[in-house]
Amino acid sequence: MQTENELLHLSDTDRRQTDKISRKMTNRSSLLNEAADDLLIEVEMNRVVALVDMDCFYVQVEQKLQPHYKGKPCAVAQYKKWKGGGLIAVGYEARAFGVTRNMMGDDARKKCPGLHLFRVPELRGKADLTKYRDAGAEVITVLSTFSQCVERASVDEAYIDLTEEVDRIIQQAGKIKVTDLQNTYIVGNDGKGENGVEDWLTSVYDGQEFGEANQRLAVGAKIAEDMRAAVYRETGYRCSAGIGHNKVRVVYLTQS
Predict the structure, then answer these.
(1) How far apart, in Å, are the Cα atoms of 31 and each of 19, 35, 36, 124?
(2) pLDDT in tens, 5-24
(3) Could you tell me the CA-to-CA distances from 103 to 67, 81, 84, 111, 154 in Å, in that order?
(4) Which of the four pLDDT bands, split at 50, 70 and 90, describes residue 46?
(5) pTM above 0.70, yes or no
(6) Per-residue DSSP letters for the chain?
(7) Which of 256, 192, 48 is nearest to 200 (CA)?
(8) Tens-digit pLDDT profile for residues 212-228
(9) Tens-digit pLDDT profile for residues 223-244
(10) Rounded to 5 degrees, what angle do the CA atoms 17, 19, 20 make?
């Protein structure tokens, strides 16, 4: 029969063993969490996502339907005519006069007397965006030739997952050159070369940190230039595009 001291000794031994096992499990769990985090980072850094944003899209749609207004200061106003209607899109020529979105049409004309206002059609007391949505669908059709994963974010915006296309090009092509990115700006890189591209590409291919991930972005930038050119060629609409490793980053970049 065990004495009380022997029982206490066994209890202390069990406690020490339990604590040892618990520490091992905690360490193992921590290692697994770190490994999972590293894997997620690796997967994310391999992805290349583009955000295409149509330039002054509603104005472009109206000017395509009425070409004689191209090159002239134009804006699109809501169907409600109070104070000229709130502006929802402003062309670059009108922006040069200080006209901005959300400005009322009457105030905009004071800043730009030659401003032409297109008006959103009205249907059953509501804005009818059909022609803008149809024009946006034309753009989506072009973008879909570059990826099987295209997500329409709004009438004039879309996300495109370029990961598979980047993989294919990396396997077939060599390095991306400055001449491949003539219309590209590198956010945060103001070095020499067109828009800082030359310095950035040099660092990308010189084995610096995140070199492989940035090489994938370089290929993505080339695809983005090709997409923009294709959209203009096929639809007549101009657009901007930003690229990053995920949606959050690409939105930030396009707003920088």
Answers:
(1) 18, 6, 9, 61
(2) 554 555 666 666 667 666 66
(3) 25, 13, 10, 11, 22
(4) confident
(5) yes
(6) ---HHHHHHHHHHHHHHHHHHHHHHHHHHHHHHHHHHHHHHHHHHH--EEEEEETTHHHHHHHHHSGGGTTS-EEEE-S--GGG-BEEEE-HHHHTTT--TT-BHHHHHHH-TT-EEEE--EETTEE--HHHHHHHHHHHHHHTTT-S-EEEEETTEEEEE-HHHHHHHHHH-----GGGGTT---TT---SSGGGHHHHHHHHTTT-TTHHHHHHHHHHHHHHHHHHHHHHHHHS--EEEEEESSHHHHHHHHH-
(7) 192
(8) 888 899 999 999 999 99
(9) 999 999 999 999 999 999 988 8
(10) 65
Q: Record the tokens describing residue 113, joined without a space.
A: 């007397």
Residue 183: what residue type? N
Give the whole-angstrom CA distance, residue 219 versus residue 208: 17
Instruction: Quickly count: other Cβ atoms within 10 Å of residue 131's Cβ.
Output: 15
What's the rounded mean pLDDT across residues 115-122?
94
Q: Which of 13-22, 163-172, 175-184 has the lowest mean pLDDT?
A: 13-22
The C-alpha atoms of residue 216 and residue 212 are separated, in whole angstroms, by 6
Tokens representing residue 202 in the block = 């040099």
Q: Which residues contact 128 (CB under 8 A, 6 or more apart)?
A: 79, 120, 121, 122
What local confidence, expressed as pLDDT, does residue 34 receive? 44
Alpha-carbon span 15 to 6, nearest angstrom: 14
Q: Kindly list the catalytic residues.
A: 157
Q: Does the pLDDT of residue 1 top 60, yes or no?
A: no
Q: Report the distance separating Cα 200 and Cα 118, nearest Å.
A: 42
Cross-strand bridge partners of residue 207: none
CA pair distance 233, 226, nearest whole angstrom = 10
Contact 239, 52 (CB under 8 A): yes
